[in-house]
Design goal:
The protein is an alpha+beta fold and 359 residues long. Helices cover 60% and strands 16% of the residues. Strand 2 and strand 3 form a beta hairpin. Helix 2 packs parallel to helix 8.
Length: 359
C-alpha cells in the first residue's frame, strides 16, 4: 500500500511541478515585457529585470492554488488514461485512500505557500518597490493624494515616504472632544529609536495652538527647526503602506487591521486580505478535492485537453466569485471572513458531493 501511495504522490507532485513551471514561466515573461515597457532614461532594462525578480515570488504564491488544481487533474488524468485507477479500484483500493494520496503533495504545496507568502514574498516585494523608486530617482508616494493616519486625538497627513523611512510633507491636526486645538506642519520627519519606544523628530515646521485662545484673541503661532513628536507609529508600520494589502504578510495584515480597529477606523480591506491569505491552504485543499472528484466523476473518460480546460475554467470561476464577493463585502460593509469562506465552502460541497456518489 505504501508503494501505491508513493506512486500516486510522485505522479501528482511531478504534474504539479510541471504545471507550476509552465504557469510561472508564462507569468514571468508577461510581467517582464510589461515592466520593460515602463523603462526610460533613468529606469533601464536591468532595473526592470531586477524588479521583476523581486516580485516574482509573490506571483508564484498566487499561482499555487491553481497549480494544485491543474496538477491534481493532470496527474490523476494520466493514471486514468492508462486505466491504472481502474486497476487500483479493482484491487480493492478505496476512493478515499486515493484522495488522501493526492492530498499529500497538495499539503506540501500548502506548506510551501505559507512559507513563501509569510517570510519571502512580502519582504522581496517591499525591497523591489523601494529599489524601483530609487532607480527612478523618486520618493515613494503612499497614494496620489498622500496618506492619512490617526493616533488617539491626532489626525496626521504626509505626502510621501522615501526608502530610508523619512516622512515628507507632514501635517498634524490635534482635537479634543469638541474642537480643533492645534495644527503642526513640517517639511520632514525623522525617526529616532534611541530611547524606549522611539519617537519622530519634526524638522523645519510651524505650529499653531488654538487651545489657549478665544474668539477675540489670535491663536498662538511659532516656527521651529526641530521638534519631538511622540506617536504610536513606527517606520516599519509605515513601510507596509507602500505595497497593497494583497502583497503583505499575514502577520503584517493582522497587525495593521488591529491598529485600524483600535483607532476606530475601517480596516476591512486588510482583514479581507488577511483571511484570503490565512485560508489559502483551505482553498488549495478544496480545489484539489474538486479535481479528484472530477477525475472519478464527469471527467473519467475525457481527454487530457478537456481535463486541463475544465480545471482552468473552474479555477477562474472560483476566483471570479471570490473577488466579486470581496468587492461586495467592502462596498456593503459585510463580514470579510464570510466573503472569503463562501466560495471555499461551496467548492468543498461540490467536491464532497461528487465523491459521496462514488463511495
Amino acid at each position: 500500500m505504501k508503494k501505491i501511495d508513493r506512486y500516486i504522490n510522485n505522479q501528482v507532485l511531478l504534474a504539479m511541478s510541471v504545471v507550476l513551471m509552465v504557469l510561472a514561466g508564462l507569468d514571468f515573461v508577461f510581467t517582464l515585457v510589461d515592466e520593460i515597457g515602463e523603462t526610460d532614461g533613468t529606469y533601464g532594462a536591468m532595473d526592470a529585470i531586477r524588479y521583476v525578480m523581486y516580485v516574482f515570488p509573490r506571483h508564484i504564491y498566487e499561482l499555487l492554488p491553481m497549480t494544485a488544481l491543474i496538477g491534481a487533474l493532470i496527474g490523476l488524468g494520466i493514471l486514468a488514461s492508462s486505466n491504472e485507477l481502474v486497476v487500483l479500484q479493482a484491487a480493492g483500493i478505496k476512493v478515499m485512500r486515493i484522495v488522501w494520496a493526492v492530498m499529500k503533495p497538495a499539503i506540501l504545496v500548502m506548506a510551501f505557500g505559507l512559507f513563501l507568502g509569510e517570510f519571502i514574498a512580502p519582504r522581496l516585494e517591499l525591497q523591489g518597490e523601494l529599489d524601483r523608486a530609487l532607480a527612478r530617482g523618486e520618493q515613494v508616494a503612499l497614494s496620489r493624494y498622500g496618506h492619512w493616519q490617526r493616533d488617539s486625538n491626532e489626525f496626521m497627513h504626509f505626502n510621501a515616504i522615501d526608502p530610508e523611512g523619512v516622512l515628507h510633507g507632514v501635517s498634524i491636526y490635534r482635537f479634543d472632544d469638541q474642537q480643533l486645538t492645534g495644527i503642526t506642519t513640517a517639511e520632514t520627519a525623522l525617526y529616532d529609536d534611541s530611547e524606549d519606544g522611539g519617537y519622530w523628530v519634526l524638522q523645519n515646521g510651524d505650529e499653531i495652538d488654538f487651545s489657549g485662545s478665544d474668539a477675540s484673541l489670535p491663536a498662538d503661532s511659532f516656527a521651529f527647526l526641530e521638534k519631538s513628536w511622540p506617536v504610536n507609529l513606527t517606520p516599519d508600520l509605515l513601510k507596509v503602506l507602500i505595497i497593497d494589502p494583497d502583497k503583505m504578510s499575514i502577520s503584517d495584515l493582522f497587525q495593521y487591521a488591529a491598529r485600524f480597529e483600535n483607532q476606530g477606523q475601517d480596516g476591512s480591506a486588510y482583514l479581507l486580505s488577511f483571511w484570503k491569505k490565512a485560508l489559502q491552504p483551505l482553498t488549495t485543499a478544496a480545489l484539489v478535492i474538486v479535481a479528484v472528484a472530477f477525475i472519478f466523476g464527469p471527467l473519467r473518460s475525457a481527454t487530457m485537453g478537456s481535463k486541463v480546460f475544465t480545471a482552468i475554467c473552474f479555477g477562474i470561476l472560483f476566483y471570479l466569485v471570490q473577488n466579486l464577493l470581496s468587492t461586495v463585502s467592502l462596498v456593503y460593509q459585510l463580514n470579510p471572513l464570510l466573503a472569503v469562506t463562501v466560495p471555499i465552502v461551496f467548492c468543498l460541497m461540490i467536491g464532497v458531493g461528487l465523491l459521496k456518489r462514488l463511495v
